[in-house]
Every structure is written in C-alpha cells, then in structure tokens.
Amino acid sequence: MAPVTVRRDPKAGEDRSIWFVTGRRRPPKRFEGQVAVVTGASSGIGRALALKLAERGASVIGLARRRTLLDQVEGELYRRSPGSATQICDVGDTDAYREALAGIENERGRIDILVNNAGIDLMLEASEGELDTVRRVFDVNFFGTVAGTLAVLPGMVQRQSGIVVNVSSDSARAPEPGQGAYAASKAAVSAFSESVAHEVGPTGVCVHLLYPGWVPTAMGLSGHEDGGSLPPRVVRRTTEGVAALVADRMGGPRIDINAALLPLLAPMARTLAPLAYQKAMRRFATTG
Fold first, then answer.
1. Is 11 contained in some domain?
2. CA max distance for the chain
3. Helix (H, G, I), strand (E, B), or coil: what is residue 129?
4. Kind and range of the H or E element at 31?
5. Which residues, other chains included, contact 24 with Cβ-Cβ below 8 Å and sequence gap of 6+?
6. Residue 133: domain span
7. If 175 and its partner were Cys, which of 39, 47, 146, 183 is the partner (CB 3.0–4.6 Å)?
C-alpha cells in the first residue's frame, strides 16, 4: 500500500488535516448536475457556502432577505455556475419559505442539497422578561430550519439521496450569558436535526449539523463591537474555511461537522468540574 503523509493546510479554516496520497492532494468533492439551495446567502457563511458549491459545479439558488446584497452574489454565482440564481425569501415566514422551496423543486425538478444557514442573534435580557425576543429568534433559527428540512425530505427520501446541512452553534453546547434565546434555538436545531438524521439515514439521505466555530461575520462581530472580547484563536475560523470544510464533509457518514474541536470539551468540563465550569461561564459575557 502506498504511504500516506498528513500535512496541515493553514488555509483550511478548521482543525483538520488535508491528506496527500503518493504526494498528490485528494481532489475536492464535486457537485455537477446537483441543485443546491442555501439560505442566508447574501453574506457571511451562507454567501461563502453558496459560492463554494457553485465553484464545485452545483446549480445554486441563494435565498436571503436583502435584494442589494443578493444581486451582488448572483453575478458571482452565475460566473461560477451558469445555472445558479438568487431569490428573495425570509425563512422566518415559514409558509413563504416552503412555497419558495416548492417552486424551486417544480422548476428544477428536485433539490439535492439544502443548507439552512439563515439565522439571527438577539441578546436576551432575561431579567426584563423579553418573550418576544425569544419568539423572533426561534421563528428564524428553529422554525425556519425545521420548515425547510421537512419541505425537502419527502423528495429526497423518495429518490434515496440528498443532503441537508443545518447550521447550529457551539453556543448550543456552552450557552453564554445573554444568549438564552440564540443558544436555545440552536440547541433545538441540534436535537431536531440529529433525530431526523437517524430516521432518514437508512434511506441514503444525509442530515448534518454544522458547528462553525467563531467566524468574523456581522453576527459574530456584534458582540465584539458591543465591548466584548474576541474568542480564543483556536476557535476562530474564516467563512472560506468553513465553506470548504462543509463542501468536503457533507454527504459523509458523520452527522456533526465541527470546524473547531475545543468546544467539544465544554460538555466534559460541565460534567467533570461543574462548579468551576459555572464560575467560568458566569465571568464570560458577549458584551462587556
């Protein structure tokens, strides 16, 4: 058997190794002929994922609320994959989101890949009893994700192929002060997606959970701009690195796609040293 050497790719954007066999890099996964839908495609991780999938050969339909930014993305998508397009859609309006997906399926014949990336992060002042904040966050982050997933699964199961990537957060594993609504919504996404993944896995459909680490998107930087400190370097990632990771890993056997490994220690710390963990988390806040 030919020797295998492992080298770290500094541009990979996550704690993984790029494998080289007999001195040659493994070719990137391709998606020619596949129809992919990416929500939140106007900026951040969603934009990077949409462009990466188009670069890898998929016809990508990018969904988002902001027309100006979507128009900019559409040109870049088309240059990479002429079958690509964009469409205005607010996933928080689950009826409109399901209609948009049904329209894409009718026009394109199927949806092979769905990335539920769109999300919002609103600070929750729990002491103020802000129930409306929790509802707004869940409408987009949880119910939008659930609506999209349930809309495309019947067709995927019938074809016995398909990929759904639902974006969670390391906050679901280690909730921070002031993040009750966001962390709870992402924890719900994780529980829902894992259950569905177990259910549909035997049919050939892959449902994944993406834990992207900390990425300097508008959402990720909001806490820093409010006076909070940046997270440790070991959990910082780039949108391009996360997009490449997802494109390489989706369709594989593992449910979770972890861009950073350090957050996996949080549940262990909570179990093995609960008081120290609580003390540390209570000192930490997204806003200063």
1. no
2. 64
3. coil
4. none
5. none
6. 28-283
7. 183
Q: Read off the amino acid at residue 249.
A: R
CB atoms within 10 A of CB 25: 11
**226 in any annotated domain:** yes
Q: How many domains does one find in the chain?
A: 1
* DSSP code, position 176: P
Burial of 263 (0-12, 13-18, 19+ CB in 10 A): buried
Q: What is the mean pLDDT of residues 82-88?
A: 96
More confident residue, 12 or 103: 103
Q: Is residue 5 part of a domain?
A: no
How many helices (DSSP H) and strands (DSSP E) are in the chain? 10, 10
Backbone phi, psi, residue 211, to 5°: -110, 100
Catalytic residues: 168, 182, 186
The mean per-residue pLDDT over the stretch 173-194 comes to 94
Neighbours of 82 (CB within 10 A): 10
| pLDDT surpasses 90 at 92 | yes
Evaluate whether residue 23 is within a structural domain.
Answer: no
